[in-house]
Amino acid sequence: MYTDLTKLIIKIADYIFREEDNVRKGIGDIMGVKVLELESERLKAEGEAIGRAEGEAIGQARGEAIGQIQGEVRLGSLITRLIQDQRTEEIPIVSTDSKRREQLYKEYGL
User: Fold this and answer.
1) Which CA distances in Å does 41 have to 8, 68, 99?
2) Is 88 exposed, middle or buried (0-12, 13-18, 19+ CB in 10 A)?
3) CA 40 from chain center: how many Å?
4) Count of other CB atoms within 10 angstroms of residue 13
5) Count of CB atoms within 10 A of residue 101's CB?
6) Nearest-5° angle of CA 15, CA 20, CA 21?
7) pLDDT tens digits for range 29-86
8) Residue-wise over 17-44: b if at least 16 C-beta within 10 A, else e?
9) Whole-number Å distance between alpha carbons of 83 and 106
10) Has this prediction a pTM greater than 0.85?
């Protein structure tokens, strides 16, 4: 019961002195316990963490999509160059053999 009363007093003091960090800390020191953060501070931190996680997920998804598009453009350019150089027999190979595809990317500077 003493602990609950102490927590209540600290919460009230935190609310009243929410912009006075030194006062809040002093009350906590006097009470002999760590100053509890305001509920609004906790919710703000939680919201920021959720927002950051969502932002990272969106960024990763966009990055993967852009990477896929760039890869398709690169492969399309390679196939176009192979056709221009009348090397059409290489097209089925580059579609399945990643090592050969990389060799041709280097050869064509793609």
Assistant:
1) 17, 41, 54
2) exposed
3) 24
4) 20
5) 18
6) 100
7) 555 554 455 566 777 888 899 999 999 989 998 888 888 888 888 999 999 999 999 9
8) beeeeeebeebbeeeeeebbeeeeeeee
9) 17
10) no
